[in-house]
UniProtKB/TrEMBL annotation:
One of its GO terms (cellular component) is membrane. Its main location: membrane. The keyword Membrane applies. InterPro entries: TDE1/TMS. This is Uncharacterized protein. Keywords: Membrane, Transmembrane, Transmembrane helix. The lineage of its organism: Eukaryota, Viridiplantae, Chlorophyta, core chlorophytes, Chlorophyceae. It is found in: Membrane. It is a multi-pass membrane protein. Pfam families: Serinc (PF03348). Belongs to the TDE1 family. The keyword Transferase does not apply.
Length: 389
């Protein structure tokens, strides 16, 4: 079924093929993610009705598992973990084969930009084959995936902060009326959006004074937002930092705050909004998938792993790091679909990244992003002997 789609990349221009390849991997990754969601939400009855899978799910000897009950091996979340494991191995194989591939003349570039039919066949075969591997291996993979997903979030934060600085520096360097207008308008919109998120957090997730943890998260976010502005007045701070950079980081961290609080199980501190809550879950679900796909694509081709120099015939991005990021993203998607915990409980079709563990992961990511940004601003003051230009 994927054969015709996977054969569209051709041509002699290496850079054009690299562009086609990155979009092809991203599209295929998104398709596999959607299929994983469908099987997680609706696949368990179908697996148990199938003769082969029904035998496997009810036969402990066939399962070869000492950690989970055999019937749990065909639960929706277990299928999500198996698909994630297969996808992760697919990209890790590419990472190993393409390790340190940086030059256009490297013959291994073709492994990244061609052989699409065989790659899709290997990927699809892995997705099916990993449904039958012992459940104990999946248990260990799930624990490893927690760390891999955390590493993916760290890379995303670093890339986001780097991107904000690049945008701010580009607008300032133009020194035109429209660029300064964009800077001021963008800063106002970002700070306004961040304050709106904090206001919504107070309304929906701090319904009484007894919600001390939520009140701490929200109020501390407001304090850090003020610190992001105050740090801009520090003498000799990073020159490329400005109101726009602080505003974008404040808005993003405010989003992480609301997202983290929304991951909480329904309790006395969460305002029940009925159908509004359902629509928020649906929109948030698709936004989460789109955000992961976009973050993976941009991070995989990011300059933080090295910038391609055309004069030196270097590739515009490193294929090995591109595939490593996709492998980490596969682990992250597994955590989203399993709510960061190994459980056999069925998941609501629109539930993704829910539970107390998910909340703490998002809050921790938010704190890391805030500390990372504040440190980059004041680093020239602390490490005054280093050149940060």
């Amino acid at each position: 079924m994927l054969g015709p789609f996977c054969c569209f990349s051709s041509g002699a221009d290496v850079r054009r093929e690299l562009t086609v390849a990155k979009w092809a991997y991203c599209i295929l990754f998104t398709i596999v993610t959607i299929v994983t969601w469908l099987l997680r939400s609706f696949g368990e009855p179908a697996f148990k009705q199938n003769r082969i899978f029904a035998y496997y799910c009810s036969n402990p000897a066939a399962a070869g598992n000492a950690v989970l009950s055999s019937s749990a091996l065909c639960s929706g979340q277990q299928v999500a973990l198996r698909f994630s494991f297969a996808t992760c191995c697919f990209f890790l194989l590419h990472f190993v084969l393409l390790f340190w591939c940086k030059k256009e003349r490297d013959v291994r570039v073709g492994l990244h930009t061609s052989l699409w039919f065989w790659k899709c066949l290997l990927w699809a075969g892995g997705l099916v084959g990993f449904l039958f591997i012992p459940g104990e291996a999946i248990f260990y993979y799930a624990n490893i995936a927690r760390f891999g997903a955390g590493l993916f979030l760290v890379f995303v934060m670093i890339e986001m902060v780097t991107w904000v600085y690049d945008i701010n520096e580009a607008l300032v360097s133009k020194d035109t009326w429209w660029s300064w207008t964009a800077l001021v308008a963008g800063s106002l919109l970002c700070f306004g959006g961040g304050l709106a998120c904090i206001g919504a957090a107070y309304h929906y997730y701090a319904t009484s004074p007894s919600c001390s943890l939520n009140l701490f998260f929200i109020t501390w976010s407001l304090v850090i937002g003020l610190a992001m502005v105050a740090v801009l007045f520090v003498p000799n701070r990073l020159e490329v930092a400005g109101l726009l950079t602080s505003g974008v980081v404040f808005l993003y961290c405010s989003y992480l705050l609301v997202s983290g609080l929304s991951s909480q199980p329904i309790n006395g501190c969460v305002r029940d909004t009925g159908m509004t809550q359902l629509w928020m879950q649906i929109v948030g679900f698709f936004l989460a998938i789109a955000a992961v796909a976009y973050s993976t694509l941009t991070l995989g081709t990011s300059h933080i792993f090295g910038t391609g120099d055309e004069d030196k015939q270097e590739l515009p991005y490193r294929p090995d790091m591109f595939h490593l990021i996709f492998a980490l993203a596969s682990m992250y998607m597994a955590m989203l679909f399993t709510n960061w915990q190994l459980s056999t409980n069925p998941s609501d079709m629109w539930h993704i990244d829910r539970g107390w563990v998910s909340m703490w992961v998002k809050i921790g990511s938010k704190w890391f992003c805030e500390v990372l940004y504040l440190w980059t601003v004041i680093a020239p003051v602390v490490c005054w002997a280093r050149d940060f230009s």
